[in-house]
Amino acid sequence: DRWNSFARLHYTTRTLVERYEPGGAQTEVYEAQTGGAIDTGRWIIQEASDTLNATVDIVSPIKQQLLDYQKNPWHVIQWTGGTSQDGVTCELVIVDTLEELDSTPRGRLTGKIILTKLVPRGLLRKLDDTGAVGVITDSPQTHMPDATPWVKFGWGQVGRSEDPARLVGLVLSENEGNKLRSLVMQCGVLKLHVRVDVRRYLGTHDVVSGIVPGRDDPQDEVWVLAHSAEPGAVDNASGVSVCLEIARVLERLIADGKIKRPRRSIRFLNAYECYGFFHYMEHVHRLQAPLAGVCLDTLGTKPEYCDGRLSWRATIPMSAGFVDRLGEKMLQASLDIKNPGYTLHTGGFVSTSDTLVGDPKYGFPCPWLNTHYRDAGVYHAYHSSADTTELLSPDGLATCAAAIAGYLYYLADMGSTEIIEIAALETARTVDLLQAGVKGSQSGLGASTGHVRGTSGEQGTRIERLTPTDAVFLCEAHRTSVDRLRRWLWGGDRNAVLTEIAQNKKRVAAAADPFGRTRNTTMPGADRIPYRTAFLSPSLANVP
Q1: How far is residue 367's CA from residue 292's CA, in Å, rounded to a whole number?
Q2: pLDDT tens, residue by residue, 468-523
Q3: Distances (CA, A) of 483 to 323, 472, 480, 486, 498
Q4: Percentage of the chain lying above the pLDDT 90 cut
Q5: What CATH superfamily is the domain 6-33+204-413?
Q6: Backbone angles phi, psi at 265, to 5 degrees
Q7: 249-295, pLDDT tens digit by residue?
Q8: 182 pLDDT more than 80
Q9: Helices 322-337/416-436 angle, 10° precision
Q10: The domain 51-200: what is its CATH number?
């Protein structure tokens, strides 16, 4: 995946299949075709792109190689344009601020290449208007001046608002950029020879499934999302590796007779972030949406690189939040058995954006496990060439694998008895929150701990009381959770279970009574219901 070429991503597919199957898991490969449905908001990669080679050499007044893709694939911006086979010789100009870029007359830099500390994503039209053949960015990687940042002109495509700009895009580390700037100061004008060999075409990208099949109802599934197709070890070879290990461990325990095969199937999905998973969800027929799941993205970082923070982020608020508490219990139990140096930090929903699958209409409850955050900000090597296996803790990965294996197995195997237990716990929690009458991280209404960029801990010390609207939110969240639990009905007296769920709702409603009814503040016309035309949240890169 570190080569950022679609042809290479198919090698990843083969590697994954070769790892899942010997461990006992079944495999499926779904090919998502690129292209189509432009300006619809659909999560579509418009075209495949293979970088075959790229070099930049200073040719005047000195001779020196500046970069080579074969030595460092991070030097090439994803979705870069290419040059002719012979390459292009051009003068280097420095444009480091938006003010300089905005004040550059249209076409003034025709035939030249820009060196900038700006991140070019989102600036393609402005850069293209200058007439430049391309851009070299040395935007700093925080605290890591020797690291080459991973830069894209767009996520799964160049944004439609940036079309039809086509530029060569290249990257240097901060220190490499400083050296190049020093040469400009010494020599005045530098001429570069740029050669970028890129093939863009109608192609496919793969969604790989590793499946632990269920014994009783295999069509009902619990899903694990761990994106591949990115070049980092922590982000996200770690999540993919944990998928492989969980599948292997579960199948081994089943084969050894230590656990039964779960009632329902567990599906591990590895694909291009969002674009692979969402395409698969929209186009592959199934009788029902997945029951629940988890997103594994950026795991097992050594404690010294993430300040020992193991973060468990909630599913999207309008989905069934009981999975948040279940996962938290599993994680804390695993840390109590063997702790590689982590402290568990829970927090509210964050869009990774894979976690948008929590959409209650089409998706499933999906919390996010990660070691992405530090006490302030994120791990320093994020999206850079410094994101290597040296940052990973084998014990940290093992702890994550053990906890999530328990979480997945419980969800895949639970039946009516577990439904009653979870519904009772969710009810007691909601009643306690309503009776306490205070906003906070546990209620989902206040600031959560240890997850926001540049912040740490609770935000402020002011105590806020629950409002009638807050009480409605808590009641709705409880209703969503206990209603979702009905999907797991298996065995026992069905009517008795449903009656117990109804009684739990009444207990919560009684606890909310002191807050009274919310005042009707509906504006005229606000009762209109929008008709959804896009599956899940729309991709803003694919709108006009």
Answers
A1: 9
A2: 999 999 999 999 999 999 999 999 999 999 999 999 999 999 999 999 875 555 66
A3: 13, 16, 5, 6, 9
A4: 82
A5: Zn peptidases (3.40.630.10)
A6: -85, 155
A7: 999 999 999 999 999 999 999 999 999 999 999 899 988 999 999 99
A8: yes
A9: 100
A10: 3.50.30.30
Helix, strand, coil shares of the chain as percentages rounded to 5?
Answer: 35, 20, 45
Q: Where are the domains of the chain?
A: 6-33+204-413, 51-200, 418-515
Please answer whether residues 318 and 360 qualify as being in contact, where contact means their C-beta atoms are separated by less than 8 angstroms: yes
Instruction: Please state the φ and ψ torsions of residue 416, each to the nearest 5 degrees.
Output: -65, -35
Q: Are 166 and 133 in contact (CB under 8 A)?
A: no
Do residues 367 and 294 lie in contact, with contact meaning Cβ atoms separated by under 8 Å? Answer: yes
Orientation angle between helical segments 494-512 and 468-484, nearest 10 degrees: 170
* Residue 542 confidence class, pLDDT cut points 50, 70, 90: confident
pLDDT in tens, 448-462: 443 333 333 444 557
pTM, entire model: 0.93
Tokens 């020992």 sit on residue? 308
Close Cβ partners of 81 (under 8 Å, ≥ 6 residues apart): 134, 166, 167, 168, 169, 196, 198
Give the orientation angle of helix 394-413 with respect to helix 322-337, to 10 degrees: 140
Q: What is the mean pLDDT of residues 232-256?
A: 98
pLDDT of residue 451: 36
pLDDT of residue 453: 35
Q: Where are the alpha helices (DSSP H) in 256-378?
A: 275-283, 303-306, 322-337
Note whether 450 and 313 are within 8 A (CB): no
- Distance CA(489)–CA(247), nearest Å, equals 25
- Six token digits for residue 91: 């003068």
Residues 6 or more apart from 517 whose CB is under 8 A from it? 468
First to last CA, the chain: 30
